[in-house]
């Protein structure tokens, strides 16, 4: 899981990005992750800009041979729901998560699903 550390509703020279909304979400995720049953299976990392600046906070899920998900407009209060989504992602063979299984708290956020490269090249 990658969390954009620069996500913030306001961007200006005065913003302390060490305390941005993205950094805050990352800190909450890492705190919950410490006691999470799947902590050894899912890495959470803080990354630079995911280029969704008008839709903070942004989080992505990616793995080899799995679909990639990019979630935007994730509220700071939904760290636990992101871990629920992470569990579904881990359990899915190809990263396919049925819409109805997505945690209710994340159903309203914007989502993009990108097929794995292996699926794209196998269709040629």
UniProtKB/TrEMBL annotation:
Highest taxon above the source species: Bacteria
InterPro entries per UniProt: DUF1636
Protein name (Swiss-Prot/TrEMBL): DUF1636 domain-containing protein
UniProt lineage: Bacteria, Bacillati, Cyanobacteriota, Cyanophyceae, Geitlerinematales
Organism of derivation: Geitlerinema calcuttense NRMC-F 0142
